[in-house]
Specification:
The chain is of the alpha+beta class. Helices cover 11% and strands 26% of the residues. The strands form three sheets. A six-stranded mixed beta barrel has the order 3-7-4-6-5-8. The protein has a four-stranded antiparallel beta sheet with strand order 10-11-9-12. A hairpin with a 5-residue loop joins strand 5 and strand 6.
Length: 278
């Protein structure tokens, strides 16, 4: 999120509110936001601000997508509240923690997306009008209202699926999840349950992807001497249908544990791992 977005927008964003000091939280008087109606996706022009071809925050370059069509991704959601309430967002709009909005690093502003909590099956539609989160291994920053509807206010984070919505077209049904998520894949607490048919999700860190299985096995062998969760080499294909071997660690017990593990891997010279939820 951006505490201040100074027009005209430069290729390098000057100030990220995520980097500001101080504590964040919800309103002093909690309210039941579970029945706040989802926004209805409508065709809107791209925001005048917040949509450069690319931008840099904390030394990392982000490329803004030309379109949100077909976008589906799973990852870790966080949320933001009083610390940024009333501040200007990347799109130039004022952040309202009671509205169903969100921040994303690369989706066009604005974009409507359905966000589903993969631990409890709760789902809501949000309007992406801000940039962020700029924390490693985070996919989306939800408003306090959206986080409340999804049941992740208390835990601070949650495992989610994001699916872009096209105005004027029927929205896809929410993702169904298992009735309860075991501790091995929770984000820190029991977030409830929902009738569903699919298996519980697992949280993994992908630390490498190789065309050569030998290279993948060498990385697994290097990491096997460390006190880590199980390390797997999985065969698959990339976007061009090239055979690759992915090295993944997990399942991991919680988001906090994944963050600690990512820091440990960085100290080992592995670099920033990729969060996988499946």
């Amino acid at each position: 999120m951006f505490a201040r977005f100074l027009p005209p927008l430069a290729a390098v964003l000057l100030l990220s509110s995520c980097a500001l000091g101080g504590r964040d939280g919800g309103p002093s008087h909690s309210a039941d936001l579970s029945h706040v109606p989802d926004p209805v996706p409508r065709a809107e022009p791209r925001s005048r601000y917040g949509n450069p071809d690319s931008y840099v925050v904390n030394g990392r370059r982000y490329t803004v997508r030309s379109s949100a069509a077909g976008y589906v991704e799973r990852g870790i959601a966080s949320w933001y509240g009083t610390k940024f309430h009333g501040r200007r967002t990347a799109s130039g709009e004022i952040y309202d923690m009671h509205a169903l909005t969100a921040a994303h690093t690369t989706l066009p502003l604005p974009t409507y997306v359905r966000v589903t909590n993969l631990n409890n099956g709760r789902s809501t539609v949000v309007r992406v009008n801000d940039r962020g989160p700029f924390h490693d291994n985070r996919l989306i920053d939800l408003s306090y209202a959206a986080a409340s509807k999804l049941g992740i206010v208390e835990t601070g984070t949650g495992l989610v699926e994001i699916r872009a919505l096209t105005p004027g077209e029927p929205a896809p049904p929410p993702v169904t999840v298992a009735q309860s998520a075991p501790a091995a894949v929770s984000s820190g607490a029991n977030l409830g349950s929902a009738a569903a048919t699919t298996a519980p999700v697992g949280l993994y860190l992908q630390v490498g992807a190789f065309v050569s299985r030998t290279n993948a096995e060498q990385l697994r062998s290097r990491l096997s001497s460390e006190p880590l969760p199980p390390i797997q080499v999985q065969q698959g294909a990339d976007a061009s249908n090239t055979l690759i071997y992915r090295v993944r660690i997990g399942p991991i017990a919680s988001v906090d544990e994944a963050d600690r593990l990512a820091s440990r891997l960085a100290a080992l010279g592995i670099g920033t791992p990729h969060v996988v939820i499946e």
